[in-house]
Amino acid sequence: MLDKNFVRENLDFVRERLGTRGGDYSLDELVALDAEWRQVLLRSEELRRQRNEASEQIGKLKKEGQDTSAQQSRVKAISNEIKSLEETLRRLEEKLNTLLHSIPNLPHESVPVGLDESANAEVRRWGSPPYFSFHPMDHVDLGVSLGILDIDRAAKIAGARFALLCGTGARLERALIHFMLDVHTHEHGYREVLPPFMANSASLFGTGNLPKFAQDLFRVEGTDYYLIPTAEVPLTNLYNGEILDGATLPQKFAAYTPCFRSEAGSYGKDTRGLIRQHQFNKVELVKFADPATSYDELESLTRDAEAVLQRVGLHYRVVALCTGDMGFSSAKTYDIEVWLPSQNRFREISSCSNFEAFQARRANIRFRNATGKKQFVHTLNGSGLAVGRTWLAILENYQQGDGTVLIPEALRPYMDGLERIAPEGS
RNA sequence: GGAGGAAUGGCCGAGUGGUUGAAGGCGGCGGUCUUGAAAACCGUUAGGGGGGCAACUCUCUCGUAGGUUCGAAUCCUACUUCCUCCGCCA
Questions:
Q1: Would you call A389 a catalytic residue per the annotation?
Q2: How confident is the model at residue A426 (pLDDT cuts 50, 70, 90)?
Q3: A77/A47 Cα distance (integer angstroms)
Q4: Which of A163, A173, A333, A362: CA 20 to 30 A from A111?
C-alpha cells in the first residue's frame, strides 16, 4: 500500500513510476476522493468539538441543579448530524481503500523498465551446464525409474499437481530442508522459526496477497484461515502492529514450511513433473530492515540464497526483473534461475525482493529510529530455496549414464554418507 | 464441547456515567547532587488522523465491532483472545 499523502503530493512522479508497470490505477479518482474525505472529516470533527463542549456544560449545570433540557436537545441534534457525516466518511473510506489497496508498489529507480520478461536483465551467472555423453532424462522419468517419485499414487490420494516422494527421494527432500536451514542459520545469521502453516486474512492482507489475489489461495471453508502460499506470510506478520527498536535492525528470519497455491489460471503450464505443484516445500528468508540500508540487505539476501546453489554445485543465473514482470508488492526483485538440462534453459528457483514500506504500511510494522521518531521498516524476503525445484534440479543435473544420480557432496552428511541414488523397489 | 473468570499506556495496576487520555508504582529519558557510579530528589515519557509555513490546535483510541445516553474506560449486545475447572485428544 502506498502512502496516500505521498501520492497526493507527488502525483506526477507516482504516475510515471506506476506507468512503467503498464496499467491504469485511477490516481485522479483517488486524489479527488481523498480531498472530499478530508473535507467531510474536518466538518465532523468541528461538530464533535461543539458536542464535547456542550456536554461538559450540561454536566456543570446539572451539578448546580439547573434544568438542561434545552441544551440536551441541541446536543442530540448535533449527535445526529455527526452520525450521518460518519456514514458518509465510512463510504468514502471504503472507496478510497479499495482503490489504494489495488495499487501496486512503485518500482525502484534501478529496476529495468519493460512490460514483460523479455526486458528482464541478467545480472550474473555462476558455474556451467553439465555435459552429458548420453541423452539426459527429465526428473519425472528419472524419479519414477529410480522408484523415488510416484505421481500416479499422489494423484490418487489428492489429485493433479501433487507428488509423492518415496524412500531416498523423501530422504533427499528432508536433507535439503535440513541443509538449507543449517546454511542460513549457522553461516548467514538467520534465526530459525517454525510458524503456523495457516494464516488469517489480516496477515494475508499485510503481505499484499489479499484482497486482490484471493483466487491464488486455498481457504479453509467456513473459517478465516488460509493455507499459506509462502512462509513470507507468517514471517512478515511476526511483527504486525509492533514498533521495533531501531537498534535491533536488521532482523533476519529463516523458516521451512510447506506452501500451498491454487495455481488458478496456470492450467496447461508446467503440467509435467514437480515444477508447479499445489503443495511444495520451501525454506524462506525474511528481513526487517532500516530503509537506509534495505537495498544492501537485498543484495546480501540474494547472495545468501545463491550460496545454497553454489554449495550443491548447480549452475544458475541471477536476473533483475523488469518493472512489468515484478510482483504486486515488490519495489525490486531478483530471480535466481537454476539450469534444467531437460528444458535446456534456466527456471526460477528463488525470488528475492525488497518491498520497502509497502507491506510494513499494510501490516503496520514500524521502528523507532535513532532520533526517536517512528518510521515504517522495510521488509524483504527471498526463497532460500524452493526445495522441490532444488530436488528436481539435482536429479537432472547429477544424473549419470547408468541411470543413477550422484548426490552432491555437501548433502552427503545429511544422507548418512550416501553418495548415489540407485534404483530401489517400491 | 461444557462451566466460570479476565482484557486499561513499554510493564504492573487504580478507576462502575460528567475536565479520566486516564491515579499510583516500575521501567525509559533529561537534570540536580557526586571524583565516578549507586541512592535520593526534580522534571519528562502512548498511538492514529485532520488543519496550520510554524508555534500550535482539533479529533479519535481503555481487546474488536455495534448499541443506549446530552455525555461511556465505566451500562447493554455480539465477537476475539487469554486464564481456571470438567470432558475429549496427538
A1: yes
A2: low
A3: 10
A4: A362
pLDDT of A346 > 90? The answer is yes
Q: Which of residues 339-368 of A touch strand B (CB under 7 A)?
A: 366
pLDDT digits (tens, 9 = 90+) for A58-72: 888 887 778 888 888
Which numeric CATH code is attached to A4-101? 1.10.287.40
Cα–Cα distance for residue pair A280/A334, rounded to 1 Å: 21
Q: Which CATH class is domain A117-421?
A: alpha beta
A351 is catalytic: yes
Catalytic residue among A294, A351, A353, A383: A351
Exposure string over A256-289, b if 16+ CB within 10 A, otherwise e: bbebbbbeeeeeeeeeebbbbbbbbbbbbbbbbb
- Our measurement of CA A302 to C1' B8, in angstroms, reads 45
Instruction: Quickly tell me which residue has 509423492 as its cell.
Output: A164
Orientation angle between helical segments A27-63 and A11-19, nearest 10 degrees: 130
Q: How far apart are CA A240 and CA A307, in angstroms?
A: 30
Name the residue ranges covered by the structural domains of chain A: 4-101, 117-421
With a cut of 80, say whether residue A372 has pLDDT above it: no
Q: Is the distance between the Cβ of A117 and the closest atom of strand B smaller than 7 Å?
A: no
Domains A4-101 and A117-421 are alike in CATH topology: no
Label the pairing between strands A345-354 and A279-289: unpaired
DSSP string, A201-238: HHHHHHHT-TTTTGGGS-B-TTSSEEE-SSTHHHHHGG
Is A261 known to be catalytic?
Answer: yes
Among this protein's residues, is A348 annotated catalytic? Answer: yes
What is Dmax (Cα atoms) for chain A? 104
At A135-174, the pLDDT tens digits run 999 999 999 999 999 999 999 999 999 999 999 999 999 9
Confirm whether any atom of chain B, the nucleic acid strand, is less than 7 Å from CB of A41.
yes
Q: Are A85 and A39 in contact (CB under 8 A)?
A: no
Which nucleotide is nearest, taking the CA of residue A86 and each C1'? B60
**Predicted pLDDT of residue A241:** 84
ipTM: 0.84
Three-class secondary structure assignment of A139-159? HHHHHHHHCCECHHHHHHHCC
Separation of alpha carbons A244 and A219, rounded Å? 31
Grouping H, G, I as helix, E, B as strand and the rest as coil, residue A195 is coil
The verdict on whether A276 is a catalytic residue reads yes
Q: Give residue A224's pLDDT band: very low, low, confident or very high (50, 70, 90).
A: confident
Of the ranges A37-46, A267-276, A342-351, which one carries the lowest mean pLDDT score?
Answer: A267-276
